[in-house]
Amino acid sequence: MYTLARELLFKLSPETSHELSIDLLGAGGRLGLNGLLTRQPAPLPVKVMGLEFANPVGLAAGLDKNGDAIDGFAQLGFGFIEIGTVTPRPQPGNPKPRLFRLPEAEAIINRMGFNNHGVDHLLARVQAAKYRGVLGINIGKNFDTPVENAVDDYLLCLDKVYAHASYVTVNVSSPNTPGLRSLQFGDSLKQLLEALRQRQEDLTQAHDKRVPLAIKIAPDMTDEETCEVARALVETGMDAVIATNTTLGREGVLGLDHADEAGGLSGAPVRDKSTHIVQVLAAELGGRLPIIAVGGITEGKHAAEKIAAGASLVQIYSGFIYKGPALIREAVDAIAALPSKS
């Protein structure tokens, strides 16, 4: 069924197809119909960040930026859902066209630029959803907020989403907001993390609820830079790291249509780069911090590879677009088949 649906959707422009898919998934979720689209994965519960996940395969941020189809995605069998990236104020994002398919490589290039309806819209959608599983909310800064003031945007979003999120992801790795990736390094990173950690403590007291903080990083770092980030995350008391966002590299797509478009590349070509970052993080962290792996999972075995590399959870995005909801069950089954670490 999905093969036919994809054939029809791929006749539309990528962004039109995306918007239509979100509308359809949202409608199916409200009617309780989406569970009929695919066989549900077998239960594979896992506890990470103090949270109970129905299974370790989640939806990555970016597909449902505004939380418009939470119930729809949940009914497909995801073990957790991450929505966003959301910013304090609504913003249109970058000029269109800004989303490109590279089907020969099972890849996507986007330069969306955090287009979203703002944090208040997202919270209204969260409150309207029936889903009660693990919900991550991914936060970012508005494009016109100077990088030196970025912490203000992150803290504002954290304040607003805290009571409604199972965990909060801090996106400092999108390549499509000028200057954002500079927040991953050195004093800028430590100052941001320390401010977030202090605010987390304040909000824990105010809400009598501790919401974990995860930091999403880029795949385009050296091993030493990755280790430095890992050490900073531990030193500042973060709860998890998500590896990775999209890449600025073009390995695996050179010569294909749209390969020279600006933006972040996701899908199969980023798989090995993302897995390498997971391996470096796992070696440096030594179990002190859980890793959520995302990047290039287009088959179940790729999800298992991420877990074997040191991740506790995985997320899918581009693979879902190319393979559909059957990929969720396939990934859960492949992870379940891994030898026990105990």
List keywords for this structure.
342 residues; alpha/beta; TIM Barrel; 8-stranded parallel barrel; 3-stranded antiparallel β-sheet; 38% helix; globular; membrane; EC 1.3.5.2; Dihydroorotate_DH_cat
Chain-wise SSE layout:
Elements: H1 2-9, H2 14-31, E1 46-48, E2 51-53, E3 57-59, H3 70-74, E4 80-86, E5 99-102, E6 107-110, H4 119-128, E7 134-139, H5 150-161, E8 167-171, H6 186-207, E9 213-217, H7 223-235, E10 240-243, E11 264-267, H8 271-285, E12 291-294, H9 300-309, E13 313-316, H10 318-323, H11 326-336
Parallel strand pairs: 3-4, 3-13, 4-7, 7-8, 8-9, 9-10, 10-12, 12-13
Antiparallel strand pairs: 1-2, 5-6, 6-11
EC number: 1.3.5.2
Organism: Pseudomonas xionganensis
Membrane topology: Peripheral membrane protein
Task: Describe the overall structure.
The strands form three sheets. An eight-stranded parallel barrel has the order 3-4-7-8-9-10-12-13, surrounded by five helices. A three-stranded antiparallel β-sheet has the order 5-6-11, with no helix packed on it. A two-stranded antiparallel sheet has the order 1-2. It is α/β, with parallel strands linked by helices and 342 residues long. 38% of the residues lie in helices and 16% in strands. The N and C termini lie far apart (39 Å). The chain has one domain (2-336): TIM Barrel (Alpha-Beta Barrel), CATH 3.20.20.70. The longest helix has 22 residues, at 186-207. Its main location: membrane.
Give the C-level CATH assignment.
Alpha Beta
Query: What is the CA-CA span between the terminal residues?
Result: 39 Å
Overall pLDDT, averaged? Answer: 97
Could you give the count of β-strands? 13
How much strand? Answer: 15-25%
Radius of gyration: 18 Å
**CATH homologous superfamily grouping:** Aldolase class I
CATH third-level topology: TIM Barrel
Largest sheet: 8 strands, parallel, barrel
Series of secondary-structure elements, N-terminal to C-terminal: HHEEEHEEEHEHEHEHEEHEHEHH
Poorly predicted ranges: none
What overall form do the CA principal axes indicate?
A: globular
Question: By helix and strand content, what is the structural category?
Answer: alpha/beta
The strand line-up of the biggest sheet is 3-4-7-8-9-10-12-13
Query: Helicity, in percent?
Result: 25-40%
